[in-house]
Structure formats: C-alpha cells, structure tokens
Amino acid sequence: MRPDYREYRPPVGLDSLVACLWENEPSEDLIQRIVPDGCVDLIWFADRELLIEGPDTGPRLVPLPGLVRVSGIRLRPGAAAAVLGIPMSELRDHAAPVPVSLVWGEQGRRLEEALANAAPDLRLGLLAEAVGKRGAEPDTLVRATAQMLIERDIRVESIAAELGLSERHLQRRLVTSVGYGPKMLARVARLRRLLALSDRSLAARALDAGYSSQAHMNLEVRQLTGTTPVRFLKDAVFTAA
After folding, report:
1. How far is 220 from 39, CA to CA, in rounded Å?
2. Which helix (H) or strand (E) holds 49?
3. Regarding the domain delimited by 140-235, which CATH topology (the fold level of the hierarchy) does it fall under?
4. Where in the chain is the domain with CATH 1.10.10.60?
5. How far apart are alpha carbons 20 and 222 in whole angstroms?
6. How far apart are the first and last CA of the chain?
7. b/e for 91-108, b at 16 or more Cβ within 10 A?
8. What pLDDT is attached to residue 200?
9. What's residue 63's pLDDT?
10. DSSP letters for 112-169
C-alpha cells in the first residue's frame, strides 16, 4: 500500500453498503490511474467539491494536487444506486466525475458546505454519516453476483441459475445497480483476481485469475487499464471493493 494512500474499515452498520473509507495525500502533484473495480466512490476533492467517481468501463487518469488530502467513501457493488437514488447506468463512463449536488440537490450542497468547513480529520466521518442517513438497502442479488464473480471464474448463466433468475433479469439488475452488466463485472473481477495473485509467473497468474490464455489477459488488461499487464501489476495497489 502506498504510504500516501490509507484505507479504513467501514463504520458499524454500514458494512453492507461501504467497502471502505479512504484518504490520499500525495507528497507532490501526480497523475493517478483509476481502473474499473465495480464500485462507486464519493470523493471530497482538492478541498473544494464533492464528486461521484464511476462506474467506469475503462481507465481514467486523474490529476491529484500535492499536499492536499482527498477523502473518499467507496460504495460496494450493488449499493450505489440505493445510496445515490438513481440508476448507475446514468453515471457510467462520464467524461468527468459528477458533482454530488447534481444528484442529491440541496442535501448535497449542505454536505459540501459541511465538508468545506470541517477539519480534515472529520471529513470521513461526515461522509459516512451522510451515507448512513440515506437509509439505503443494497441489492442483495447483485451483491451475491459480485461476490461469486470475485471469488471464482464462473459463467454468467451459472450465476443466474444459482440465484433463480433469468440472464435478462440479472442483466437489468446489474445495469441499474452497478452501471454495467455481468459480463463486464466478470472482466473487472478477473482483473482484481490477477492483481491479488503474486509470486507466480505472469502466465500462471493469468490462468489462475480465470483468463483463457496470456493473450486474453493482455487484451483485457489493456482495455481496462490502458497499459500493459507488467506495468499495471508493478504500479497498481489492491484496494477494497
């Protein structure tokens, strides 16, 4: 884990919605590569605005100012639509992060004002409190789907059969709750499994993660991260999701 990036466990009662709270305070200006992880983040950015980041189906390069603390709360797959109150497909692959005030209206503007006036150490607590007050319940079928895909290489039709759903219904649920369908989420899950593996050759890691071949891995990693597997695995940080 990078010394400038820190993760914290979600507060009691928010585990079903929140993967983690996090802070990033780089020592100098940098360009951060963000890759799809199935999650959506609420981010207090550069001491001036509260943004929604994701869901994305490809990489995003984000400039981070040095010596400025960025605070965020990461919503689990299946939780963001319930917390934010809109289908995640409406936010997919936006050219820039979306201001929370455009989604939450006056509540979002009040939260931005509170964050702007709060000491940096209090901002994560304010973000968690705001999420808790939404009274949201995650889509449990989507959570189960995401967990299956993260834990093992499994076909979408097998997931639908295990959950007692049609593939079309599962597709609709995921597009609403995550922002994209199960096949895209499966690609994201393979990437996370690849990143979690270590101490193996690249070819062995590819097969263990669920890719059909090293060429398949090369293609998907480039599409999802915008760089080569070697470079991605060298620089990437495994984060909560």
Report:
1. 19
2. strand 49-53
3. Arc Repressor Mutant, subunit A (1.10.10)
4. 140-235
5. 27
6. 15
7. bbeeeebbbbbebbeeeb
8. 81
9. 94
10. HHHHHHS-GGGHHHHHHHHHHHT-----HHHHHHHHHHHHS---HHHHHHHHT--HHH
Contacts 24+ apart (CB under 8 A), 145-151: 145/78, 145/170, 145/173, 145/174, 145/182, 145/185, 146/38, 146/76, 146/77, 146/78, 146/178, 146/185, 146/189, 149/182, 149/185, 149/186, 149/188, 149/189, 150/189, 150/192, 150/193, 150/241
| 83 burial type by CB count under 10 A (0-12 exposed, 13-18 middle, 19+ buried) | buried
Residue-wise pLDDT tens digits, 106-138? 999 999 999 999 999 999 999 999 999 999 999
Q: Which residues contact 92 (CB under 8 A, 6 or more apart)?
A: 55, 56, 57, 179, 180
Identify which of 153, 145, 149, 151 has the alpha carbon closest to the alpha carbon of residue 177. 145
Please confirm whether the linkage preceding 36 is cis (ω < 30° from 0).
no
Residues of the chain with pLDDT under 70: 1-3
Q: Give Dmax over CA atoms of the chain in angstroms.
A: 52
- What pLDDT was estimated at residue 198? 83
**Of 114, 111, 149, 148, nearest in space to 130 by CA:** 111
Q: What is the pLDDT of residues 206-227, one digit of tens each?
A: 999 999 999 999 999 999 999 9
**Alpha-carbon span 77 to 143, nearest angstrom:** 6
Angle at 133 between CA 131 and CA 137, to 5 degrees: 70
